[in-house]
Amino acid sequence: MCSFHLEKWYTLYDPEIYKKHYEMHNESIISYFKYRATDLLILNISEADSMERLCQFLNIEYLGQKMPHLNKTYAYLQL
């Protein structure tokens, strides 16, 4: 494979390009909801209160449930 094809492939799958696009997309979403803050929930699902915040946002009763997590690294490492 010649260097031109390698450069083209690397540019196509450059992680920095995808990261920048992801960040720009997030910024545009936040900007869109700038004057409607109660219509957007930004949630880090790894935080302990994430399920409670989600239920509150959806206006449903929080019953102490935890955020589902099926792919825990710890469980995998125990195999």
Task: Spell out the key features of this protein.
mainly alpha, single chain, 79 residues
Would you kindly provide a written description of the structure presented here, covering whatever features stand out?
- With 79 residues, the protein is mainly α.
- It has helices at residues 3-12, 15-32, 50-58, 73-77.
- The protein is flat.
Tally of DSSP β-strands = 0
Mean pLDDT rating? 83
| Secondary-structure class | mainly alpha
- State Rg: 20 Å
Summarize the entry for a quick read.
Helix content is 53%, strand content 0%. The chain has 79 residues and is mainly alpha-helical.
Helices and strands in order:
Layout: H1 3-12, H2 15-32, H3 50-58, H4 73-77
